[in-house]
């Protein structure tokens, strides 16, 4: 499992804990809650969307829903996609993983043991191992994206700089104020989710094609993002 998938449920649980609820509480009208990830194509009519995004690699016809309750989306590209389908979407943007630091308090602290860390997506992880891509770079710490969400947070905080092809590696670096750069080692993943995320946080996507480029180029501009609207959009009413 990708740590980002695990993080989605965790963020929802932590948000519910603020109000004394759990994901196991009974509710008046059972509804799906979709949060972290490019998972809109899994939505069914009546589901609640809080920070999810569209997956640019999934055919439009795989989106079967007609009536979903959208509270927030990952970024403006997802909003445009849904509006074109006649769905009302507020201008509330952000990946819920941006709330990780706020929701976990002082649980995770930076240690900065390593100058650079790389967080590959699962496809690039296999490529890095197969081709030994890190051999020329003795100071790069490899963060395994199949680790638990908390171990990935800890390992990211061991680094002073993050290069990543994992979107949530970039999101976590942002929320903890660690300089980062998207490195696009392959074209296996579409660009849409990265563009959507960066535009949703007021920036544009600029990426590197190689690990060396990512080390030589300037990092992505730092995050200046108000988490308030995303937090306020959380669907507590489903549990009320």
Classification by helices and strands: alpha/beta
Q: In what order do the strands lie side by side in the largest sheet?
A: 5-4-6-7-8
Ranges where pLDDT stays below 50 over 5 or more residues in a row are: none
Mean pLDDT score, rounded?
A: 96
Helix/strand order, N-terminal first: HEEEHHEHEHEHEHEHH
Q: State the helix count.
A: 9
Spatial extent as radius of gyration: 18 Å
Number of strands: 8
Briefly note the CATH topology name of the largest domain.
Rossmann fold
Molecular structure report:
Pfam families: PS_pyruv_trans (PF04230). InterPro entries: Polysacch_pyruvyl_Trfase. Residues 30-180 form the Polysaccharide pyruvyl transferase domain. The structure is a single chain. The protein has 2 domains: 3-97 and 227-239, no CATH class; 103-216, Rossmann fold, CATH 3.40.50. Helices cover 31% and strands 12% of the residues. It contains 9 helices and 8 strands. It has helices spanning 3-17, 76-83, 100-104, 122-131, 149-156, 167-175, 192-200, 211-216, 228-232, and strands spanning 33-34, 48-52, 69-73, 116-119, 140-142, 162-164, 180-183, 207-208. The strands form 2 sheets. A 5-stranded parallel beta sheet has the order 5-4-6-7-8. A 3-stranded parallel beta sheet has the order 1-2-3, covered by helices on one side. The protein is globular, with a radius of gyration of 18 Å. The mean pLDDT is 96.
